[in-house]
Specification:
- Belongs to the glycosyltransferase 2 family.
- This is Glycosyltransferase.
- GO terms for molecular function: glycosyltransferase activity.
- By secondary structure, this protein is of the alpha/beta class.
- The chain folds into two domains: 190 residues, Spore Coat Polysaccharide Biosynthesis Protein SpsA, Chain A, CATH 3.90.550; 76 residues, no CATH class.
- The chain is 35% helix and 19% strand.
- Strands 1, 2, 3, 4, 5, 6, 7, 8 and 9 form a nine-stranded mixed β-sheet that branches.
- Strand 1, helix 1 and strand 2 form a beta-alpha-beta unit.
């Protein structure tokens, strides 16, 4: 088995079923000659009685636990049999040879063990076939990550303290800590059908901000949370909780900035193995 694709889904409506089905169909059509297994980790606990049915080749797992982004991905990872594992949202469209392009880069550069395909579908003016880096939403695209199975075992799988937010940030930092190279593959294309973001009125305090103040004592929050530009953190307690978890684990923004500078310098001079100590 060469590639295992783990997809997280929540099949509760015809629209969501159609979106996930399109994702699966485009995946299969994109790699006709690749040995592949598809594992769907389903959040709808009543899926078996829902009337929605995915193709027989799709292994559907319905965990008893409540949804947790990393926990559900780990369930799929541990069930997978592939040499490579792709961790995917269900709102994706896969383009022809997206994984073959990743495999081509990996074979030519065996020390690169983690990848993201490019989401820039119409961008064919790139200079290099791939770009090394750990920058989230530039190199590390949390909606589609591909890694060797051995890498996922080496890092101890994904940290399940992250329910959803900052999961990709945590993955990027974990790669850097373990000195595992990650590449954005410009020649491999996967489209992310992001839901349209709701525009929020930033004039004055939003209702979300007001409600959160009723639940959280702002005086007890670290000072870096209340910095200008972080208002979005006070719109949603889940986002705030994940942000705090991330910085409790890796350090405050100022400390993390300094540690990253040192870690990047060590990587530059081929001393990245010291990052286990720095980070």
């Amino acid at each position: 088995m060469q590639l295992s694709v783990v997809i997280l889904s929540y099949t509760t409506t015809e629209g969501l079923f159609e979106m996930t089905s399109n994702c699966i169909n485009s995946l299969v059509d994109s790699e006709k000659d690749t040995k592949m297994e598809v594992i769907l980790v389903e959040s709808n606990k009543d899926y078996l009685n829902s009337g929605f049915v995915y193709p027989e080749f799709v292994k559907v797992i319905v965990p008893e636990a409540d949804f947790n982004f990393h926990k559900f991905l780990n369930i799929g990872i541990k069930e997978s049999k592939g040499d490579f594992v792709a961790l995917c949202n269900n709102d994706l469209i896969f383009y022809k040879n997206w994984f073959s392009e990743i495999l081509k880069i990996q074979k030519a550069n065996p020390k690169i063990e983690s990848f993201s395909p490019s989401g820039k579908i119409d961008d064919f003016g790139f200079i290099n076939d791939f770009e090394l880096g750990y920058k989230v939403r530039t190199h590390v695209l949390g909606w589609c990550l591909v890694a060797t199975k051995e890498v996922l075992k080496r890092i101890g799988y994904l940290d399940e303290t992250f329910n959803f937010g900052y999961a990709d940030n945590d993955y990027a930092m974990t790669l850097k800590k373990y000195n595992i190279k990650h590449a954005l593959v410009n020649t491999g294309k996967v489209e992310h059908l992001e839901r349209e973001k709701v525009k929020k009125n930033r004039e004055g305090l939003s209702e979300g901000y007001k409600k959160l103040q009723e639940k959280v004592s702002l005086e007890k929050l670290p000072s870096y949370v209340l910095q200008k530009g972080n208002e979005y953190l006070l719109e949603d307690k889940k986002v705030l909780d994940d942000y705090l978890k991330y910085h409790i684990k890796w350090g405050s923004p100022n400390l993390l900035y300094k540690k990253n500078k040192i870690a990047d310098l060590l990587i530059r001079f081929h001393l990245g193995f010291f990052n286990r100590i720095i980070l």
